[in-house]
Amino acid sequence: MSDINISNTLRANLNTQLDLCRKLEDLADNLPDDVDAQSCLSLAREIYPTLKQAHEFEETILFPALRNNYSDNEQLMSTLERLRFEHWEDESFAEELRDCMISFVNERSAECINSLSYMLRGFFEGVRRHIAFEREHIIPLLENKSGSTIQDNQ
Ligand SMILES: [Fe+2]
């Protein structure tokens, strides 16, 4: 896969995840009364597979290509490890969020509504930060190999 194809796939995956974040923010804004049970359940089922598919692409195609192109850039190597760890954290958070959304639809307890609102915001804010970092620091490495420095400013 060429760097430009990797870059295009990465951009598409990041946009899909941002769409997901937008839907989760809408849900958070409409809690608790303006939420349709069926759309909440189908959104709940969308979260983990969307993240997992994007993360698998990064870890099996993108990161190995970067390791190959920038093998002498130690800072980038540790950044990729951090991004991989964030994937793992976000996937684990995605499963908790899915379960919380399902129990919100089934129970609608006050405790459940409060924890769902908190979890939704924590989740999409974290995913957006991760995406912003990849857009700012990873995409330029694919599109312009001369820009080989990377800032770890998260
Ligand atoms: Fe990522």
Polypeptide structure, described:
The protein is mainly alpha-helical. It has one domain (3-143): Up-down Bundle (Four Helix Bundle (Hemerythrin (Met), subunit A)). The protein is 84% helix and 0% strand. The chain contains four helices and no strands. It has helices at residues 3-30, 37-69, 74-107, 110-143. Helix 2 packs antiparallel against helix 3 and helix 3 packs antiparallel against helix 4 (110-143). The longest helix is centred in the middle third of the chain and has 34 residues, at 74-107. The chain is elongated and about 55 Å long. The model is unreliable at 146-154 (pLDDT under 50). It binds fe (ii) ion.
> How much of the polypeptide forms β-strand, as a percent range?
under 5%
Q: What's the end-to-end separation, in Å?
A: 29 Å
Number of helices: 4
CATH architecture label name: Up-down Bundle
Please provide the count of β strands.
Answer: 0
Which bin fits the share of residues in helices?
over 70%
Task: Please state the average pLDDT score.
Answer: 91
Q: What is the total number of structural domains?
A: 1
Query: Which segments are poorly predicted (pLDDT under 50) over 5 or more consecutive residues?
Result: 146-154
Label the overall shape.
elongated
Secondary-structure element series: HHHH
What name is given to the CATH topology? Answer: Four Helix Bundle (Hemerythrin (Met), subunit A)
What is the radius of gyration?
Answer: 17 Å
